Amino acid sequence: MIAALIGLPLAGATALLLGGRRTNAWGHFLAVALSASSFFVGLGLLIQMMGRPAEERAVSQQLFQWITVGTFQVPFGLHLDQLSIAFVMLITGVGTLIHIYSIGYMAHDENRRRFFAYLNLFVAAMLLLVLADSYLLIYVGWEGVGLASYLLISFYQHKPSAATAGKKAFIVNRVGDAGLAIAIMLMFTTFGTVTFTGVDAGAGQASAQHLTWMGLALLLAACGKSAQFPLQSWLLDAMEGPTPVSALIHAATMVTAGVYLIVRAHAIFDLSETARTAVVAIGAITLLLGAFIGTAKDDIKKGLAGSTMSQIGYMVLAAGLGPVGYVFAIFHLLTHGMFKAGLFLGAGSVMHGMHDDVNMRHYGALRTMMKITYVTFGLGFLAIIGIPPFAGFWSKDEIIHAAFGQNTFVGAAALLGAGVTAFYMTRMMAMTFFGEARWQDDVHPHESPAVMTIPMMVLAFGSVFGGMAMLFLGDIEGWLEPVTGFAQPANAISNTILIPITLVTVLLGAGYAWLRYGRRPVPVTAPAQVSILTRAARADAYGDALNEAVFMRPGQYLTRSLTWFDTKGIDGAIGGLAAAIGGISARARRLQNGYTRSYALTMLGGATLIAFVLLLVRL
Amino acid sequence: MSGESIVFYTTAFFAIVGALGMVVSRKAVHSALWVAFAMINIAVLYFSLGAPFLGTTQVIVYTGAVMMLFLFVLMIVGVDSSDSLLETIKGQRIVGLLFALAFGSMLISAITSNAPLPAVGFGKINFDNGGQINGLASLVFSTYLLAFEVTSALLITAALGAMVLAHTERWTPRKTQDELQRERTLGSHITPQPAPGVLASNNSVDTPALLPDGSTSEASLPTPFKGQGAVTSNLAIDEVSK
Amino acid sequence: MNPNNYLVLAAILFTIGAFGVLVRRNAIIVFMSVEMMLNAANLAFVAGARSTGTLDGLVAAFFVMVVAAAEVVVGLAIIVSIFRSRRSASIDEPSLLKY
């Protein structure tokens, strides 16, 4: 049954890609149906799992022996435990909703079938990633989602910006993938196996240095896939893809794969303090950086992308806290998956009504025109800034709480991030739905069709109740504890004090944003006279410039020098040698002048020489 | 000074003169005569060395057969064809002279630095074999029999090779008397062809006849000389115009 | 008289013959020069035979003559056939086998 989870969407992708135009008419329904059936299979498995006692919940399925090299064996095995099933529900659930939404969103796109094929492919790859029972198999899913991400970012391939963005995402991801490959190789040399059980069992005996390097390599992989600093630059450009893709891949699921990887490899991180510290540092930096970028973006999708970076920063930070944080990292991941997907779908709905305009300065006063979008987006907004009792509150508050338990600075960073989050999300709300209308001339905002609004409503429902449901009904801490371990944070600051502080911070951020953007008119064109900080945030905190200066230019210079050396040095030497031999030959062949007498002269010269030598020898 | 010395120095001088004459003569016929002269002197040296059979053979084979063959070929190629003294290959003469001098001086220095050869002479061996010719014959037909037989094969091959090389295939059917007659009477030239050497400075067979207008007639030359008569005919004209 | 003088004479004749091969362009004279070199060798053979008191040197000289005769026959035939086709006996003329 576990294999069916992956098999159904994979079959859909295969059918749609191989079926060609014949499947144009009904392909998207097939994709939705297969994705939904995968969800229902997952739901069945979840109900079965809940029926079993905690120790017996994890199940495995060995499909076949995948790689056998000497004593090194990698089975193609699937592993479904409490952690995997949470992801399965998120991927298939949100995935199916976004499939449905896409029917409406992509209705007028002539490449709709291809889009749905890629979506199904993504779902299959992502499920393989979370269901794999070895790191090598994770790598397969890891690359699979990378491929799907690449294909979907550059889906509007006729747009150079989209094609470039796809390539950028692919290449930046390669850096992270190298980290995963290194980690797997290290595991192989250290443990002799790459399965979860083998690694978990062997971690205790491995040397601290090995574990640290493994942890850092895994962190690099997570940074690439989850757009964490310093590999964050691709995510903002990835917004060139269709909005459902941004919602599914670049907000809810794929970009959280890094968090999954860290939590999955908790056996390694538990034992390496250094690696955990690095994870926390990366998470803290990214959560502030993403929030910072989010504050200055006029592009609604890019603003949300910055927010995604920031929220994943929270998860990575939580994952770096160890057993205190794993559960909350996953908890926040799940709630974030719901409200961020909802926000993105809302953004898509707004764009749908605004002729695909993404500039928030051209929005305004849409709350009357798009009531459903407004309400669902607003619920997502409340969830992300962490207003109780919405979903984001429960997860984010726990992370801030655990962060303070680790270190006051980290806690302060998380708290500050919450404030900035409130600021930029309020700004987004204010610019989009409030204030006066700043619509372009030929734009007539209208509500999206039901096929789009229903998924938004479902996700908004999740944004409202998902956190509470998981925390109180599902007992997320107890549910994940057998897999990841769980420890109560030993805190100086208790939740009773922290929650009011957090709420005040959030309200301060939101209030300031309201004052700046809700009460005052928003200029239609972005003001040019802005502070250095704003300029930096608009330029994605100079992530691209940094990449360009540190990697691209030296790389180009190196390549150019190598090319120069190759053409002038090596080719020159080889060519020069050939030319020299040719030149010498051209001169030497002059000796072959065809005159018998010249040859005779040569002979006499030789005879003279021999006579001379004989004379010398004899004398 | 012994008789042998007198003979040696005289003939050696003549042989060297003959050799040098061969090298410096412009005309091939002169060269051939200088060679014949040098070879006769060498034959005299053979006699004085006590090898009369070889000396006789030298005269018969070289001055008789080989040099006459040269002269025959010169007849075909053109007796008068003399070399231009201009050297066409750059540095050939200088370098050739240098090499020749170096080679010769090295040989001579090697020879003269040696102790004098013993002068055993053929007396004993001639006596043992009952004469030099008997001795040569017994050597040729015993020790050197294989070489001798191979030499005979070489001669046969050379003769055949020369025939093959000198032979030209007839590509057209031989003309009948009838055809020749028709050509003669129906062609433009009823009278006999002019004979070579007519009115020319000499009556050599390769000198074309001079026609009444002073030009030369290629038609008067025998076929082998046709097309190469420029030098000779100019000479003839020069002579006439003087 | 020093019998080495015969060898010196042979060396001089050989050198003159070699020089003739180098500087003369008429193929027939070149041939004559070659004959001169062969004769010089013969002279050395005969002188050597007398010095050792054996007849082998004479036999060698004899064979050289035979081979020289054969060589002359073939060589002159070649000259004639070249002359037929090129109307020239110059040894520089057939310099086609070159770069």
Q: How would the blueprint of this fold be written?
A:
The complex is a heterotrimer of chains A (619), B (242) and C (99).
Chain A: H1 2-19, H2 27-51, E1 59-69, E2 72-80, H3 82-105, H4 112-131, H5 135-153, H6 160-191, H7 196-202, H8 208-225, H9 233-237, H10 243-252, H11 257-264, H12 266-271, H13 273-296, H14 300-320, H15 326-353, H16 371-385, H17 391-406, H18 408-433, H19 450-473, H20 476-484, H21 495-518, H22 532-538, H23 543-588, H24 596-618
Antiparallel strand pairs in A: 1-2
Helix pairs in contact in A: 1-2, 1-4, 2-3, 2-4, 3-4, 3-10, 3-15, 3-19, 4-5, 5-6, 5-10, 6-8, 8-11, 8-13, 10-15, 11-14, 13-14, 13-18, 13-22, 14-15, 14-17, 14-18, 15-16, 15-17, 15-19, 15-20, 16-18, 16-19, 17-18, 17-19, 17-21, 18-21
Chain B: H1 3-24, H2 28-49, H3 52-77, H4 92-113, H5 123-129, H6 132-140, H7 145-166, H8 177-186, E1 209-210, E2 216-217, H9 230-241
Antiparallel strand pairs in B: 1-2
Helix pairs in contact in B: 1-2, 2-3, 5-6
Chain C: H1 4-23, H2 27-52, H3 56-86
Question: Can you tag this structure with a few keywords?
Answer:
heterotrimer; B: 242 residues; mainly alpha; Four Helix Bundle (Hemerythrin (Met), subunit A); two-stranded antiparallel ribbon; 9 helices; extended; C: 99 residues; Helix Hairpins; elongated
Q: What is the CATH-assigned architecture of the domain at 1-79 in chain B?
A: Up-down Bundle
How many DSSP H or I helices of chain C? 3
Structural class of chain C: mainly alpha
Largest sheet of chain C: none
Spatial separation of the terminal alpha carbons of chain B: 55 Å
Ends distance of chain C: 53 Å
Morphology call of chain B = extended
Low-confidence stretches of chain C: none
**Strands in their spatial order, largest beta sheet of chain B:** 1-2
- Name the helicity range of chain B: 55-70%
The DSSP helix count of chain B reads: 9
Radius of gyration of chain B: 26 Å
Spatial extent as radius of gyration of chain C: 17 Å
CATH superfamily of the domain at 1-79 in chain B: NADH-ubiquinone/plastoquinone oxidoreductase chain 6, subunit NuoJ
Parts with pLDDT < 50 across at least 5 consecutive residues of chain B: 229-237
Reading the helices and strands of chain C in chain order gives HHH
Largest sheet of chain B: 2 strands, antiparallel
What is the oligomer described by this structure? heterotrimer
Please write the CATH class name of the domain at 1-79 in chain B.
Answer: Mainly Alpha
